[in-house]
Amino acid sequence: MITTAVILAAGLGSRLGEHTSRKPKCLVDVEGCPLLDRSIRALTANGFTKIVIVGGYKADVLEEFLGTKNYPAEIQVIYNHHYASTNNIYSLWIAYNLLRLDESFLLLEGDLIFDSKVLSAFKTQSAIALDTYNPAIHSGTTASVGRSGWLDSLYFRPELPETGTVYKTVNIYSFEPEFAEHLFYTLNRFIEQGRTQIYYEYAIDEVLKKYGQKLRMVDFSDVFWDEIDSETDLRRVEENLRLLQAVKGQN
């Protein structure tokens, strides 16, 4: 049973403008509730008892926020002091300072909002959250999936899968012990090579192909989720949340 979670929340969030001028992106309010608070509550509701948060930008504000909370989980914070010059691969590598090398864990990013019920699918297996790719709203890493439901390969923009359904990575993963250990050693090698400005998905893809590890697809095509990178994203998410609440109120 996977009970440890890692939240990456070090980035600048510059595309959100004034929303992140005084606080990190993970603390941006969405309909009155900070993203990080939503994620931690979702994790604890699903039985996660240890949560590692990798902060960076506006670290003092993050510390102050967490100091006002009393979550029913062990919250550990570590900082990427090079957040302005590195990418999320470096933040994930740093997280391993607070994990055993073979410790199973769930990984998610601090700018996500999602239906908390879906986390139950990540408790007992190595898995990847994927949504059907929509170029109108999606960007970044995509994926292809085999007929058996296992992740086949990750693709990094502008490359896209040439055949079959194209999926968008949601940035929620879970790793069982063997996968986690291979991932650590791969991350460590990449960092030693100076590859600190790439996405951690490059390391995940190498673990798949070099070591034969597998990730089961968790289909998010009919799940409420979104990623907030910009003012446009924030407005879309808030509108969709209001619509969902209105529908619930009618039922």
Please describe what this structure looks like.
This protein has 251 residues and is α/β, with parallel strands linked by helices. It has helices at 35-45, 59-67, 88-95, 177-192, 201-211, 231-250; strands spanning 4-9, 29-30, 33-34, 50-55, 74-79, 105-109, 112-114, 127-132, 142-145, 151-155, 167-175, 216-219, 225-227. The strands form 3 sheets. Strands 1, 4, 5, 6, 8, 9, 10, 11 and 12 form a 9-stranded mixed β-sheet that branches. The chain has a two-stranded antiparallel ribbon with strand order 2-3. It is globular, with a radius of gyration of 17 Å. The two termini are 35 Å apart.
What is the strand and helix layout of this fold?
Layout (H helix, E strand, L loop, with lengths): L3 E6 L19 E2 L2 E2 H11 L4 E6 L3 H9 L6 E6 L8 H8 L9 E5 L2 E3 L12 E6 L9 E4 L5 E5 L11 E9 L1 H16 L8 H11 L4 E4 L5 E3 L3 H20 L1
Parallel strand pairs: 1-4, 1-6, 4-5, 8-12
Antiparallel strand pairs: 2-3, 6-11, 7-13, 8-11, 9-10, 9-11
Helix pairs in contact: 3-4, 4-5
